[in-house]
Amino acid sequence: MALDEAQKAYLERVMGGYSAGRLRLRERQDEAADKADEAGLPVSGPSGAFGGRGSDPVSAISEYRAANTALTALTKLERKREPTAEEAQALSAIILKENRPALLVQNNSFAVPKVGEWTLLAEHKIALEKILPAVGRIEIKTESPLGYIGTGFLVAPDVILTNRHVARFFVESKSLEIQADLNPRIDYAQEYQVERFQIAAIRQALLVDDYWDLAALQVEWDEATPKLEPLPLAGSLPQPLKDGLVTSIGYPALDTSKSERIPVQMQVFDNIFEKKRLSPGYTLGRGETTSFGKTVRAVEHDCSTLGGNSGSCLYNLDSQSVVGLHFAGFYLVANYAVPTWELTKNPVLKNLGVTFV
User: Fold this and answer.
1) CA 320, CA 342: separation in Å to the nearest integer?
2) 259 vs 89, 254, 268, CA distance in Å?
3) 164 and 213 in contact (C-beta within 8 Å)?
4) 347, 314, 342: which is closest to 153 by C-alpha?
5) What is the per-residue pLDDT for 295?
6) DSSP string spanning 275-320?
7) 98-127: string of b/e by CB count within 10 Å (b at 16+)?
8) Does the pLDDT at position 317 exceed 60?
9) How far is the C-alpha of 319 from the C-alpha of 312, rounded, in Å?
10) Is the CB of residue 11 less than 8 Å from the CB of residue 91?
């Protein structure tokens, strides 16, 4: 996995600079060495001498060696040399897993990281737990083993937002006709190791935007409607837009399009995909990207997302409002979201009762 210049810059920024990255990698080495030493296992020796993850000491040895490989990559980058594919993978996996984690949501809650900058999520945990129930996994009846096509979130009592490229799997863009035989629905649960479902049928397409990658869909519960709070959308430019503290909430799916990226994904996401996750990060400002043949100025962010995150909300922790609708991303460069304040003049959304704050 060769790193281009944009990816190198991304990793350097996410780790907070090479010096901060080196310090944290050495701390990880020390922590892993202590665990292995307590069990009487050496951390040196040929790679693979202690295979698998059968015990904590064995995991500690693997962590030590991964940190050592990542340090080699970091040293090469500092010296303007190219790390090997293995070294680049080790560095990317460790930096992303710790600095841009993807936290599992279970029973509408999540575990706050115990180390690193994201311990700050503790002060936002109550607010975040209130919005987690409003985000769901969009599914259709299909022969595909995946069975779902993206993410959506509640913006009015019976209205969800998602991406146009998600909705087009079951919506005819011009007529707004739903393909009922595909049985489109949204499950607001789908959490890892939690046997809980909260399903609403998608009955009608209300809007398929002809500019932004956005669609509004009407949902209907088969039974009494649960008390889910719709999420408010930011109606004005967030201040600051650059370096705004945000989280993406959605359902990342393993991306198999490029095999060299799979090991990093497996490590960052602990080989658990298609379940609800909360991914913290920062907005990077506005940036141009292509969308349905047009160049648009989207909100850039660096939360850890994958394909199934299409339609995720980008929630600002300070304003407690959604500032973007995630729709695309480039690996180790940036992700892109529809800016919500650009939607305030949309008459359809106004008539649907969507709240802008």
Assistant:
1) 18
2) 12, 11, 15
3) yes
4) 314
5) 97
6) S-EEEEEEEEEEEEEEETTEEEEEEEE-----GGGTT-EEEETTTT
7) bbbbbbbbbebebeebeeeebeebeebeee
8) yes
9) 18
10) yes
Q: Give tens-digit pLDDT for 21-76.
A: 999 999 988 888 887 777 666 555 433 322 333 346 677 788 888 999 999 999 99
Rounded to an integer, what distance in angstroms lies between the CA atom of residue 38 and that of residue 57? 8
Distance CA 58, CA 99 (A): 24
Of 305, 349, 309, nearest to 215 (Cα)?
349
Q: Which of 161, 178, 225, 236 is nearest to 199 (CA)?
A: 225
Tokens standing for residue 310: 């299409």
Look up residue 72 and give its two tokens: 């080699």
Query: What are the distances in angstroms from CA 106 to CA 26, 77, 278?
Result: 32, 38, 10
Position with higher pLDDT, 240 vs 297: 297
First CA to last CA across the chain, in angstroms? 43
Give one DSSP letter per residue of 325-338, joined into a string: EEEEEETTTEEEEE
Structure tokens at 79: 């010296």
DSSP label at residue 226: P
Bridge partners of 50?
A: none
Q: Give phi and psi for 67, each to the nearest 5.
A: -65, -40
Cα–Cα distance for residue pair 194/137, rounded to 1 Å:
15
Torsions phi, psi for 280 (to 5 deg): -80, 155
Q: Counting Cβ atoms within 10 Å, is residue 145 exposed (0-12), middle (13-18) or buried (19+)?
A: exposed
Compute the residue count for the chain.
Answer: 357
Q: Which among 102, 133, 127, 112 is positioned nearest to 274, based on CA atoms?
A: 102
pLDDT tens digit sequence for 228-282: 999 999 999 998 899 999 999 999 999 998 888 999 999 999 999 999 999 999 9
